[in-house]
């Protein structure tokens, strides 16, 4: 089966504690149950979730939608935002997990990467090193999400042209965001030119695209 | 109900903590301490069990055999006696206490609440229970989730969700001995919108073209697959198929005597020079057809003020004719899908070109890409073959080759073509007298293959 690998990198630094992380958990659950009802997604999409604070953790390894059981995502009391380290783990995972086509084997669909943060990378040197590494890998789309007023979208802009900004980190806003994520996953897995990337569906009006 | 029974020197029964304390007052301190410590251990165990244990039970799928081996030891509890699950029977599962398996065939999808109940050993006649509510998720059958939303007919570049074509051919040739020799052939094609498009009410992007050039007894067939990621690709595939048929017809008419002479000369003397003559003729016919298709698409894109990329489409074309010495088939192919000459009797297949794939699924090349119409690239993609006879000449888009062949290597295997032909023959009656074969072919296109729900188009000459 050709899989559509979807990687979600989620900020669990100290600032996410409280309503924000609770909203992310609600949003993720809504995302998964939405994808379960999408026959195209249930037959192709696989989800991997990597959280990052001081530590990075692959809390959900690349799993088919039908088999996913979401853990409760938690945050430490406080701590830095090691997004660079998270991208490092992402690169390692994608190299290990994603299947490329050969004459004898059908490859996966081109992976999609979502990154959500409410701040800026604390490990900025590693982050910039990893931007180079991520760009070496072919992805259908990289989507950055700068959540809340303290988020610094300019750092995400260094990695991708697709950056969405959320004014608040409440559950209404996150549910809009994750609904849109499911729309993006829905259009992954279509034929495209060998050098193309995905044309994203327009985000709902509550989410702003950063130009 | 008793919440606790102590069977030490004295028998004490209590239904709540207050009652227990009253009993303690009446009895000696030793028993009191004993009970309190046991109660404490029990409560702590109960508490930590409920709060901290993340109990994993695998998800299931509706109407599919489910079996999950539950390992109670992994919970790390001591003194476990009998245990069971409540609520499984409401959706078709049961717990086998001998094998410790939850099994059965789930009948309803959803997030089912079930309860794990554990009795602790040596604790009051087995009345003390640990309970934990769990969720057992049963996924719906993907088949039941597909919707078939008709394409709105007021959209730009509307195209019907399916299409089919049937051409019956009977040509007469004078044989060597002056007798009439009849060639009986059928040309059919069918195209069906994929489930992934039907789900969203989006149009079919595939297209095809069939033509029998009666004057010279040539067969023209083409299939095209508009890119899923390009928004006007359905028009691109339509223009390509229509133009290919028009241009091949006029170019064959124009060059018929020279073209057929080259074929006959090559057949009697297979030199490189003669081979090149055929390829040059194909360049004039197929090359022009492809080139002009792209020009027409460019015109359309310009008129609509859009990039040509929006009209991206793959393209497979064949022109063929039966000569006295056998069949000539010329072909051009860009993109994925496939074209092959299949001979069932001799277990032979000749694939006329190579599939254009990338590192990932779905990546391919389109006729509308600038590099494809560069002369050396276009020339490279021209193929021809002369065979004694065949069962069928088949052109397909990737909606069929992906599920039926899976890999590029399999597309070259005659076994895979035989499987396809056997599968087709179950639903399509390929006899000359059957005039419903295109309809049957269209029905066949509805076959089920998980994860493969793209538009499907096939054209067959038999």
Description:
The complex is a heterodimer of chains A (211) and B (462). Chain A has helices spanning 19-36, 39-42, 83-97, 124-136, 153-157, 171-187, and strands at residues 4-11, 45-52, 56-64, 112-117, 141-147, 162-166, 192-193, 208-210. With 211 residues, chain A is α/β, with parallel strands linked by helices. Chain A has a single domain (4-189, 204-210), classed as von Willebrand factor, type A domain (Rossmann fold, 3-Layer(aba) Sandwich). Chain B has helices at 17-26, 29-52, 142-145, 195-198, 233-268, 272-303, 375-380, 398-405, 408-411, 414-427, 437-444; strands spanning 4-7, 11-14, 60-61, 66-69, 80-86, 93-96, 101-104, 110-120, 129-139, 162-174, 180-192, 206-213, 218-225, 315-323, 326-334, 338-343, 348-351, 363-364, 382-387, 392-396, 456-461. In chain B, strand 8 (110-120) and strand 9 form a beta hairpin. The chains are: A alpha/beta (211), B alpha+beta (462). The interface between A and B is large, with 37 and 45 residues. Strand 7 of chain A pairs parallel with strand 18 of chain B, so a sheet runs across the interface.
CATH architecture of the largest domain in chain B: 4-Layer Sandwich
From the 3D structure, determine the CATH topology of the largest domain in chain B: Phosphatase 2c, domain 1
As laid out across the biggest beta sheet of chain A, the strand order is 3-2-1-4-5-6-8
Low-pLDDT parts of chain A are: none
The termini of chain B sit apart by 81 Å
Q: What fraction strand of chain A?
A: 15-25%
The rough form of chain B would be described as elongated
- Rg of chain A to the nearest angstrom? 16 Å
* Main CATH class of the largest domain in chain B: Alpha Beta
């Amino acid at each position: 089966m050709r899989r559509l690998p979807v990687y979600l990198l989620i900020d669990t630094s100290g600032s996410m504690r409280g309503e924000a992380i609770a909203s992310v958990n609600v949003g993720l659950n809504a995302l998964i149950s939405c994808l379960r009802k999408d026959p195209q997604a249930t037959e192709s999409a696989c989800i991997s979730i990597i959280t990052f604070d001081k530590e990075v953790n692959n809390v959900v390894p690349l799993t088919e939608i039908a088999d996913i059981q979401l853990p409760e995502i938690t945050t430490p009391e406080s701590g830095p935002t090691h997004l660079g380290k998270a991208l490092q783990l992402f690169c390692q995972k994608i190299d290990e997990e994603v299947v490329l086509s050969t004459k004898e084997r059908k490859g996966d669909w081109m992976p999609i990467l979502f990154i959500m943060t409410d701040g800026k990378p604390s490990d900025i040197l590693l982050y910039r090193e990893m931007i180079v590494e991520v760009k070496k890998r072919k992805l259908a789309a990289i989507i950055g999400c700068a959540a809340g007023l303290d988020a610094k979208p300019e750092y995400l802009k260094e990695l991708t042209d697709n950056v969405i900004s959320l004014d608040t980190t409440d559950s209404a806003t996150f549910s809009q965001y994750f609904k849109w994520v499911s729309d993006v996953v829905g259009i992954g897995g279509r034929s495209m030119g060998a050098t193309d990337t995905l044309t994203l569906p327009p985000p709902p009006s509550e989410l702003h695209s950063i130009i | 109900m008793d919440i606790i029974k102590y069977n030490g020197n004295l028998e004490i029964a209590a239904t709540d903590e207050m009652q227990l304390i009253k009993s303690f007052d009446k009895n000696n301190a030793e028993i009191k301490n004993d009970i309190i410590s046991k109660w404490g251990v029990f409560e702590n165990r109960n508490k930590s069990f409920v709060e901290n244990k993340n109990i994993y039970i695998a998800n299931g799928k509706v109407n599919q055999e489910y079996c999950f081996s539950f390992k109670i030891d992994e919970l790390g509890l001591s003194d476990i006696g009998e245990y069971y699950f409540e609520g499984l029977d409401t959706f078709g599962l049961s717990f086998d206490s001998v094998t410790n398996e939850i099994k059965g065939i789930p009948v309803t999808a959803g997030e089912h609440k079930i309860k794990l109940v554990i009795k602790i050993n040596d604790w009051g006649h087995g009345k003390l229970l640990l309970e934990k509510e769990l969720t057992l998720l049963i996924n719906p059958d993907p088949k039941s989730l597909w919707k078939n939303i008709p394409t709105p007919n007021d959209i730009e570049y509307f195209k019907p969700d399916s299409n089919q074509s049937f051409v019956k051919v009977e040509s007469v040739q004078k044989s060597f001995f002056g007798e009439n020799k009849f060639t009986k052939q059928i040309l059919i094609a069918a195209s069906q919108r994929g489930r992934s498009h039907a789900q969203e009410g989006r149009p079919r992007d595939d297209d095809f073209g069939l033509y029998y050039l009666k004057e010279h007894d040539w067969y023209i067939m083409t299939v095209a697959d508009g890119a899923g990621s390009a928004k006007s690709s359905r028009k691109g595939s339509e223009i390509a198929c229509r133009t290919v048929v028009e241009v091949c017809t006029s170019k064959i008419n124009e060059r018929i005597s020279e073209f057929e002479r080259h074929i006959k000369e090559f057949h009697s003397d297979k030199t490189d020079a003669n081979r090149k003559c055929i390829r040059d003729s194909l360049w004039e016919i197929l090359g022009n057809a492809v080139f002009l298709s792209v020009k027409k698409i460019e015109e359309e894109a310009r008129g609509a003020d859009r990039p040509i990329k929006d009209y991206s489409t793959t393209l497979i074309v064949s022109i063929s004719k039966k000569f006295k010495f056998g069949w000539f088939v010329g072909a051009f192919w860009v993109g994925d899908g496939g074209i092959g000459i299949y001979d069932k009797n001799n277990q032979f297949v000749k694939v006329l070109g190579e599939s254009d794939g990338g590192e990932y699924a779905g990546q391919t090349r389109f006729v509308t890409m600038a590099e494809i119409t560069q002369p050396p690239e276009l020339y490279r993609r021209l193929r021809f073959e002369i065979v004694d006879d065949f069962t069928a000449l088949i052109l397909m888009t990737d909606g069929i080759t992906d599920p039926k062949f899976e890999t590029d290597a399999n597309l070259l295997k005659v076994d895979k073509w035989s499987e396809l032909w056997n599968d087709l023959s179950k639903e399509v009656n390929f006899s000359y007298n059957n005039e419903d074969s295109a309809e049957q072919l269209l029905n066949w296109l509805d076959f089920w293959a998980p994860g493969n729900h793209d538009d499907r188009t096939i054209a067959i000459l038999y």
